[in-house]
Specification:
Blueprint (H helix, E strand, L loop, with lengths): L2 E3 H8 L3 H6 L6 E5 L7 E6 L5 H20 L3 H23 L5 H12 L7 H14 L24 E4 L14 H10 L3 E4 L9
Parallel strand pairs: 4-5
Antiparallel strand pairs: 1-3, 2-3
Length: 203
Amino acid sequence: MTWLSTEQAAKLEECSERTLRRNKDRYEFRLVNGAGGECGTRYEFLLESLSALAQARYHGEQEEKSANALMALTDAQREVVFLKLAAVEAYQEFKEMYPRTDKLRAFLAQYNEQHPDKPLTKRQLNHWEKLYKRDGVAGLVDRRGGYNKGQSSIQKDERTCSYPIGCKRRERRVAGRPWRLATALHNSGFQTVSSRACPLSSG
């Protein structure tokens, strides 16, 4: 589930924030404590409850943002982003399948047993998932000091980006489908090619 601010939802629905709040019962919404709004609360709207056209606009913006964020990165930098993406999506799928409440602990135990050379911490995974929910793949790009050192300067039509489209995903997942990102990359001038295997998939 993706929760959007009133400003974001209104922009996607192409209406004013006032109109959206007046018609809020048409959507799924919640009140969140914090700055703004009456009594220090604000409305957030569930993306999946917006119109089909508004959802399409959102996913289109996310795909374009992801492609733009990846364009200037080197192969090594993109590899790091895809590793984070694979971990986050594996955790999201695990949460849907695992019946007990200790989902994070159970996932990390299984993941770190399968990847002892690159173990994950609770803090890392929670942080990556938060960034991914907020900004999509673009949020997983490391933007700390010097992150753009060694970025690619070759022409766009000469670039090739390897994306692990062989990774298993739930077909009913809409946001974050590999073919969606591959299409966005292709439209931005990349030639997307399958890697031999998903870097984080278990054998």
